[in-house]
Amino acid sequence: MSIPNLILAYALAMLAGLAGLGIYSEYRRRRFEPRPSEDRIFRCQRCGYVYTDDPDVDRSRCSQCGLTNDAIEF
Ligand SMILES: [Zn+2]
Fold first, then answer.
1. Would you tell me how many other CB atoms lie within 10 Å of the CB of residue 28?
2. Residue 44 C-alpha to ligand 1 middle, in angstroms?
3. Which of 26, 32, 49, 55 satisfies CB 3.0 to 4.6 Å to 64 for a cystine?
């Protein structure tokens, strides 16, 4: 095998690896996407900061000022 062929083979192997990685990450992204945002949304009554927290909590502490707020219901 000559040197240019080796370099070509190496470049092709790199490309194949990158393509495989891209397909894999796309597959992972799609698997996790069908759950948009089930998190609850909170709006701080003191500083107005909007943030999210786990869906199973009723009250969450504002990360900006520390005030505990109720979730916004839609
Ligand atoms: Zn706040």
1. 10
2. 5
3. 49
